[in-house]
Design goal:
Layout (H helix, E strand, L loop, with lengths): L9 E6 L20 E2 L2 E2 H11 L2 E8 L4 H7 L8 E6 L5 H9 L10 E6 L2 E3 L3 H10 L4 E7 L31 E10 H5 L9 H11 L4 E6 L3 E3 L3 H13 L14 E3 L4 E2 L4 E3 L2 E3 L4 E2 L4 E3 L2 E2 L4 E2 L4 E3 L2 E2 L4 E2 L4 E3 L2 E2 L4 E2 L4 E2 L4 E2 L4 E2 L11
Parallel strand pairs: 1-4, 1-6, 4-5, 8-10, 12-15, 13-16, 14-17, 15-18, 16-19, 17-20, 18-21, 19-22, 20-23, 21-24, 22-25, 23-26, 24-27, 25-28
Antiparallel strand pairs: 2-3, 6-9, 7-11, 8-9
Helix pairs in contact: 3-6
Length: about 375
């Protein structure tokens, strides 16, 4: 990390308006950026890192369940931040949301403005990205990350000086493995040039227009930790990586390790908890339970002998004896009866009661 004292206080916009449909049922009652992740709301990790890199004021661009963000973070003082909240009455796309939130900025036209996406975990050096932006006199500087297969994302080629050449749609034969990582540094005046109160996509409209007009759009490319937590599997991976310290976070409420037990959790000494699993406050884990790489929410009850792997157990859910869960999401207050076996992306909605041995993926009940 570059010394944040070298960077003047930054203002930022945090995009948190999405409904998180790919994470349902977890997001039926809670916005995706507020889902408990490694023991705290997901955004706590982003806010703590932003503060560590010299950000002092953040404008939340909210829409879905907007009031919950202020309830969770208040004025931001717990993170050494000043937080403002701006709500979209109707979804405006990424560019429209940034433009709408910009009315709460206080910085001058030439100042850099950091734009963060509320569903990304990243280990990249924000200060270095801002330094590149300022030294290159860029209109926008994008964080680019390297992935094994860019065909699923679309790609962003750059020249030897880091100048972005194009935004290419998904293709079977991408010309580079670098993709848009969703963290931007804008010159404030560029944000102000986005049409107000209109649906605008920065990826499909703003950035290509800037490139075509000859403005400097730079790519800050690196290969540090990066994860889009938009799916249940990625959400679980992100939480576990934070618990294990694979991505260090100032917001982690305990030392990194194979598990994180929150206050009031009761875990039998005969249970085995590994893989970066979180056991929520006042959750109960019975003897002989095997839980690996999972998120167990507050007040959940896991019976003796249950096996849970790569799964999410919602608040107040009950998992009975003999049950096996792999790659599964169990909604809040759901009850899974004895000897069920759920796997392969199964999702149980909140409050559902599954009778004994009613779903099996193998023949031995």
């Amino acid at each position: 990390m570059t010394d944040s004292s070298l960077l003047a206080p930054l203002e930022a916009i945090l995009l948190v308006g999405g409904q998180g449909t790919r994470l349902r049922p977890l997001t039926l009652f809670t916005p995706k950026p507020l889902l408990p992740t490694a023991g705290v709301p997901f955004l706590a990790h982003q806010l703590a890192r932003a503060s560590a890199f010299g950000v002092r004021r953040i404008v939340f661009a909210t829409s879905y369940k907007a009031s919950m963000f202020a309830d969770a973070f208040g004025d931001g003082s717990a993170f050494g931040l000043e937080i403002e909240y701006v709500c979209e009455d109707t979804p405006l796309g990424t560019g429209g949301a940034i433009r709408n939130a910009a009315r709460a900025l206080t910085c001058p036209p030439d100042a850099p403005v950091l734009v963060l996406n509320g569903d990304i975990l990243s280990g990249h050096d924000i200060t270095a990205q801002v330094d590149m932006h300022l030294s290159g006199d860029a209109a926008v500087t994008l964080h680019l990350t390297e992935v094994e297969d860019a065909a699923a994302f679309g790609c962003v080629p750059i020249d030897e000086d880091g100048r972005v050449l194009a935004f290419l749609e998904k293709t079977p034969n991408p010309v580079t493995n670098r993709i848009n990582a969703g963290c931007y540094v804008f010159r404030r005046s560029v944000i102000d040039s986005i049409p107000p109160d209109q649906v605008v996509s920065v990826e499909r409209e703003t950035f290509p227009t800037l490139i075509d007009s000859g403005d400097r759009v730079l790519g800050f490319a690196d290969s540090t930790y990066w994860l889009d937590v938009g799916t249940p599997a990625a959400y679980v991976q992100g939480s576990c990586d934070l618990v294990r310290g694979i991505l260090p976070s100032p917001a982690l409420p305990g030392p990194p390790g194979e598990s994180l037990l929150l206050p009031g959790a009761t875990v039998s000494p005969e249970a085995k908890i590994t893989g970066g699993t979180v056991i929520g406050s006042h959750a109960t884990i019975g003897a002989g339970a095997l839980i690996r790489a999972s998120v167990i929410a507050d007040e959940a009850t896991i019976a003796p002998g249950v096996t849970i792997m790569n799964s999410v157990i919602g608040p107040g859910a009950t998992i009975a004896q003999g049950t096996i869960l792999r790659d599964t999401v169990i909604g809040a207050t759901a009850t899974i009866g004895p000897n069920n076996e759920l796997t392969s992306g199964a999702r149980i909605w909140p409050g559902v009661a599954l009778p004994e041995a009613s779903i099996r993926f193998s023949s031995d009940a």
